């Protein structure tokens, strides 16, 4: 198939063939000679932009052969007007071939650049481990910015001496402009997760790194930059989960077909806003039964809107769909349902992290 089948329906590749057939049909029925040559010429140029090299050559050859057959039919073959008409068809076929070669060259360059970008972005946000002890883990990331793999959302899971620690966060802004802050956030979390004795100390170290990073940036970013986040800790026995919420959408606990929202007792400000003097949140813990799933999301999920402007509600939408036996089932169901809810492109990044306690 052609190079654009990943973005366009399969039948787009049939358009050049349809244009040649239309041109031949018009030439056969029109009282004016070669009225359909315009459609046939457009078919070759379009093939050069849409199809592979082999297919473009085939369409060009079809154009030249169709032109030759029409010249023989009308008695122009071997005469100057017919010769010029045939040379014009060959030239048009060569133009289509040139278009194909130029597009293919730019496509190769784009592929090389994209492969480097993928490696860099995956280094910033690696895929979490599939299993950590008794915990099965799955994650998904959907960016609002086309062709980007990561943006302003982040997640991480790390096995530590204090249990399995986790993070989900949303950096102010979206797209590639927030990747720098995301890299600092994840780097600080990975370093401090093994050393901090509790979640409060872990949050303080992460926030200190973010404030230091913001001090070297523009004033508006320094004054208005913040990060909503949930820091979590699943105990070594995997029977309880502690959460520390900094102005982030609450996690959810899925048990069978029941979905509960783990709302913090007191609302708190995001990270990097401690200078406002607001009290710091305290960790809260909940039981984590066998077979249950802890689901963490960013506001790309909770603020997704349908055509009427209604926000998506994970607890209501996922309730009754269970039981989910694996975390990837939860992630796939949520992504599919959000896409169905919005019915089109989103205007914010969406990160999802699901952790299931297996038997």
What can you tell me about this protein's structure?
By secondary structure, this protein is an alpha+beta fold. It has ten helices and eleven strands. The chain has a six-stranded antiparallel β-sheet with strand order 1-2-11-10-7-8. Strands 3-4-5-6-9 form a five-stranded antiparallel β-sheet, covered by helices on one side. β3 and β4 (163-171) form a beta hairpin. It is elongated and about 90 Å long. The two termini are 46 Å apart. The mean pLDDT is 83.
Any chance you could write out the topology, listing elements then pairs?
Elements: H1 15-29, H2 37-50, H3 53-74, H4 80-124, E1 131-132, E2 135-142, E3 153-160, E4 163-171, H5 179-193, H6 199-214, H7 219-224, E5 227-234, E6 240-246, E7 252-255, E8 258-261, E9 284-287, E10 293-297, H8 299-302, H9 314-318, H10 327-342, E11 350-357
Antiparallel strand pairs: 1-2, 2-11, 3-4, 4-5, 5-6, 6-9, 7-8, 7-10, 10-11
